[in-house]
Amino acid sequence: RKEVEQDPGPFNVPEGATVAFNCTYSNSASQSFFWYRQDCRKEPKLLMSVYSSGNEDGRFTAQLNRASQYISLLIRDSKLSDSATYLCVVNTGGFKTIFGAGTRLFVKA
Amino acid sequence: GAGVSQSPRYKVAKRGQDVALRCDPISGHVSLFWYQQALGQGPEFLTYFQNEAQLDKSGLPSDRFFAERPEGSVSTLKIQRTQQEDSAVYLCASSMDRENYGYTFGSGTRLTVV
Question: Is pLDDT at B100 greater than 60 in this prediction?
Fold first, then answer.
């Protein structure tokens, strides 16, 4: 079993839709969690950290469920520019950070 | 510079050739990471430096891979006797903090071994 697992998608949604991705992690001692966005043939860029109480940044909401060991990302009012691969990232303590394989999102006009 | 700089942007190597990939992190960033990203996959951890000290090299796939950061700033990832399976994008990331509070990645070096 991979340490961080994501549904690869692709998710194809129309503009304005709400879409949610989940990610599960296997190490219960994991300490910090992030979502990164990666555009085609570009480097990953930090989208947002994920806090225990959940957090929101504009149209994006991240949630953490430690009991079930998953994190989620909700995107409201999808824009064409949201089309990208979304990487779930888990820090297992210290400096080792594990990336998921990513979930691909296509937003259509 | 303002971001993490990597060079070369693209590298084509003949099988068996040695290559050196350079990473210039954000000034003052203590932590530096190397990742390998195969097509359609997420980045896979290779190695981590805190200043000049290589604290974790558990992700290096073989002894043909070697990384250094002698003065705690610029880092070089060297691959000896390249093989086709080494073809990937090599990403460098830096972070101000010892713990991961979010990395800034460079644009990567796309290595193709023919």
Answer: no
